[in-house]
Amino acid sequence: MPFPVGSLKFKARRRTLGASAHRVVVRRQLPWYWYALGATLALFLLIALLFAIQRLGGEEQKELDFLRRQVRELNDELLGLRSTAGTEKNAVQIERSTTQQLVARVKVLESENAALKEDLLLFERLLQAAGGDAAVRIEELRVLPDGPHQFRYKVLLAYQSGKPPQEFRGRLQLMVVFLLEGKLRELIVYAGKEGAGGHDVVIRGFLRKEGRFELPPGATLQSVEARVFQGDTLKTRRHEQL
Fold first, then answer.
1. How far apart are CA 110 and CA 189, in angstroms?
2. Residue 131 in contact with residue 162, Cβ under 8 Å?
3. Is the Cβ–Cβ distance between 159 and 168 less than 8 Å?
């Protein structure tokens, strides 16, 4: 049996009024000045935040400038220390060079002093021999190393005569004996090129002769003998065992 129309309307109204009815949200509308106040507070907070950020950035910039100044000061100090160290190093080098020069000069003076003493002794011997028979003598013979397989020799010759001739003309040669491969070998070294008359030394009082000679690789020097000839006649000689 069909329901009445009124009953249908009541059922529809009951659904709207019951638990299945739609929810209604009730909102209170705030006045406009509250919104203005909130916006103002937000603006103040934003300005304060920007000011704090700017202040912090200014302090960081000051600290950065301070650090930069410190770096510049440290660089200047480092350059000064390097300059001072370089000056001290140059001073040490100059002092060392001066010391080496003085040592070399002292060695030269000592050598010259020794040569003067030898000359003095030579003059004394010449004075003692004055008035005797004329004779040529080898007063000194020295052989010194002068590089790989090389040697330097020094010979001091003397001639004193109260009668003509007042000079001696002859030849000076060295006989060098060395050991090579277990055998003794000889090397003749001439003091100089023979000039006119077949002589290479002219002695008036005394004469120094210096020169060099070289041995084969692996050779060992044994002895040196200086000889003075007049023509083919051996006038004097001096042997130096090494």
1. 29
2. yes
3. yes
Q: For residues 7-16, b (16+ Cβ closer than 10 Å) or e, as one string?
A: eeeeeeeeee
Q: Averaged in consecutive runs of 10 residues, what is the pLDDT profile of the chain (242 residues)?
A: 50 52 55 75 78 68 77 81 72 82 84 75 62 75 88 87 76 92 91 57 85 91 92 89 83
Exposure on the CB side of residue 158, measured as CA atoms within 13 A: 20
What span, in angstroms and rounded, lies between the C-alpha atoms of 219 and 183? Answer: 10
Written as one letter, the residue type at 128 is: Q
Report the greatest alpha carbon distance in the chain. 191
Domain limits of the chain?
31-129, 132-241
Nearest to 149 by CA among 182, 111, 183, 187: 187
**Which segments of the chain are extended strands (E)?**
135-145, 150-160, 168-180, 183-190, 201-203, 205-214, 220-230, 233-241
Q: CATH code for 132-241? A: 2.60.40.10
The pTM is what?
A: 0.49
